[in-house]
């Protein structure tokens, strides 16, 4: 139960600390017969990579994924896909200052409480570096789900919001700017704001929105494993996430039933989609959309009071190269987790009727 | 994987349609040696019961739980606890009008897509009646967790919000009003609003907030099974839920790191608690708090256009006795699911170190 | 993990002590659209029932199964099937003599060591009464697997063996005698021997053989979840089982590869079947066959030395009505567990290729 | 469900084909705070290695394990332990003759039926090479379980049996001969026989016996997850295994209850141990012992008739370097799987009472 696996039939298990020798994972349950384009997987991984633009951490990590098993002559064989991403820079020189110190709003204190021991270098297992493995597995899932489209993008940075309806958005613009916002005007404001925040030695939060198109009907399990419940868990398991809402979300709580109900067209589609593509926990074929809230990164380049292992007050200041805002690099992670969820439910659904 | 189980070590599996003979469940993994007060469990169940006040559905369902196993001489034995709640009123006369009709924003259409067949009486398995079993299991979990306090309450109904800080609230007032809001002034406004909505034949959404006190440190598993990820899944699995946020939540995305970080006191507690009692997915001993968004009930007493199985346009109108707002009866369900999550992680945590 | 569930996609969870109010279970994951013949299920249950013949326990237990959910108009709906078997005779008068006494080779001592508390009446949860629930679920699985035939029968009682090759057996004779042996001559000897053993106040062991015909190819998962590994676990989980072998089994260890290999026919079938229908953990379409070893029942009607909770030597003697040989009633349990395993793997296999 | 994971709380997931780039695994759930001696792990792996003696395959595989995560300063941290064993010789030249040919009693045919595609080089995923990962994980488990002793050894080769009672055996002699039998006289006979069989271009089966000493009481879960049921599954999941029995096993079926019952000593230990250390599925603190049946290796150096993918009759003959008897190298695998089972149940048992 140690919590390093995700999914039931399409299952990812990951390992690795940020400053160990390598991180990696095993994808178990990927069906046989899928042609895998390995370059596409590396491309997805590059979207998450440090150093890719001026508004993310400037750490140098090549993040090259090596596949060790599970494919033969370019095709999946149904056996587990093992992969490894070597850690380029394992020297721990930058982390001696946090060896005995608990960084505020990090996982240092809680890991020590839970395990009694901790790899303090770069956050160890609690580092967001682990999410690189999710992106690899998500990229494999996407190739399995080839007709289903996953479009995540930055919907807000701090108080700057993408103020457009989903229908107005052109998803082909997402990768045209460093902040990954499909609205160029908003993107520019967000980017400027992130740069300003970084100058202050501070950080800021934001939200990612994700739209899943071409969804098959009938995915999701009733009661505890509702499709949106698992999507919610998937998103909340990403570092720094504080909230999840789908369809009408928190705004929907203010509406009346007569306003909120999605009336049917004759073909079973609905005139509105406040349900967010899921009814009773099961996909209805309409677009799924949801929002994910990311808090501001806890590591700031300003002095902060904190305590050490001995419970003494000490002062600390972030060192090294950190993201002023996690949201642009979180976009591919959100997509990856969404793809893992949908892949798993697609396989699960094969046993729902004879 | 059919999704009718929740939890790994403290596990609930439920069965039952709203208009079958009975609903029930099995609690597996409850440790031996817990004195069980069965009346307290029934009391919890009564908090969820239809007909308990003027602002909830007036259906008559006694909802009496019978325990069949797992205890001996008043104590749990470590063996599975089987229980059953008989369905009082199994006659289906009220449901003939929906036999072939898909109610808007219900699970009728998606169940048919998934299974090809469906018990259409009262929503069948998709009925919120299933949550009665969760309340039973949650009440058992609470007795196992006796020092940990679960306080859920209505935080908003439509646009009427409980406008007080958690610290100002007196949780002993929650059960003093039908709407289950610890602030009597807000409660009155909410109650009036629900009555008005009901007169309109309409429904309205709302939010439940939950505060967990006396939390042990170290609960939660890193990476995929973070404590808040599982809490989120638990809440999102409740009927009508559209969103979940904990700690600073969606509001926290607008903050800077320098504002958001929770600085430590010397004893490891924190001066602020925007983390919501969870850091890196693991409890830090501070209060856990979170919000759950409920959409307006889909069944309204107004005429609506819809379609039938044949894809023809038909008109329908809700019959029978339904909740104008699900939130007051959802309060004990939120508490129950929270207790199930914490019980499970308490057991899981026993294997984190030697 | 409390071990009261079996299966992953076609999953049974059971509850109930022998002297509680009821035993029962939940079958989760049975696909929608299966016509269920409830009488056939009761018939299977009757094959396991006490009092059915002169050579089994003479206890009176009606063992009537009641279904509470999961079917609608005679068909499964894909939702969980909840069922209950009431315990007819819950009076505990016969068990006061074992309240503080540990019966030799029973589970009394180990349950106390594990849980610190125990329902001592009739073995509580460790009673073979629990297997009634397995027979119910297995009977449902059989109806799902309608073309696959499960034939279990008594292959030995003590040293009396059914000395015929599987191919010579006429399975239609299994139910023609009380001992459930398809060879009438052997059956008579076995029955006489069991009667003699009972007169001595003693018990005896035996073996059950099971043959599965019309197996689909490709069932079983590689590596840890090989088809025979799960069949083995299923059988070893039945009360009193001490061993499992399939295909050539323990005898096969004495053979050479040149004798043991099953050569192919052109259609993929094999000329011999020492593999027992499974190669590399995956079914090859040939008949699956295996043997299950049952030890002699531990409760004997003779005086035995033992100890009590206080570690004092005491003398005890079995009371009541017990089976002199468990094998005849174990036959339907073996079939049921085999059916549960095959049903689960049939569903799992749906996700092995695109 | 793809079957490449074993264990629930102490969980191993493996990947890798025999002729891919590497095999490896992830151990998830190993508690924090265990000092790991990595050399000891390599030593265990060397016991399984090809080429170690004259009676095993002469393939050259260095089998060096590299650890990538999960330890810090020599101690486990509670995070997943990722490891990799590179495949030294990935060239596939030796396997072209089996590309389209189904080897008798191998997994070639069934893998093709299941997946529709297969890495035919050296058996791919069905190769016993995968068990190297089990030995690594088992060696970690042994260090966690340091007081519990696992002693497996060869108990028979073909018809040559180790004809001594467990109590007479000196386990320190196991590693003094190539066949791994603690009785030197039997070992010599076995070794001679294996050499003779190899000369014939044939193979032979055998059995491994395992004794677990210093067992804690109370391990094992009632009903489906009985300790011996999981041990049985673990053993049956090893390549070439056809049977499992524990305690009195198949011989016990011939006994009477009055002979078979284990009477108690005052301290709760038993005078005899036909129960094999497990009663009602739960350990009672006595030694656990069991037998595992291995069939003769299917690859023989003699000509055999077989078929190819097109269903045509073809003739084939094993090439390369194969084991004439799998048993000597299976000994450490049996120990490893036993250690994984016990580690898992030790963790599970922590939640059995308050």
Automatic annotation (TrEMBL), chains A, B, C, D:
Pathway(s) of this molecule: Metabolic intermediate biosynthesis; chorismate biosynthesis; chorismate from D-erythrose 4-phosphate and phosphoenolpyruvate: step 7/7
Biological role: This reaction introduces a second double bond into the aromatic ring system.
Family according to the record: Belongs to the chorismate synthase family.
GO MF entry, a single one: chorismate synthase activity
Biological process according to GO: amino acid biosynthetic process; aromatic amino acid family biosynthetic process; chorismate biosynthetic process
Oligomer and partners: Homotetramer.
Protein name (record): Chorismate synthase
Cofactor: FMNH2
Assigned EC number: 4.2.3.5
InterPro entries, per database record: Chorismate_synth, Chorismate_synth_AroC_sf, Chorismate_synthase_CS
The keyword Amino-acid biosynthesis is assigned to this record: yes
Superkingdom to which the source organism belongs: Bacteria
Broad enzyme group: lyase
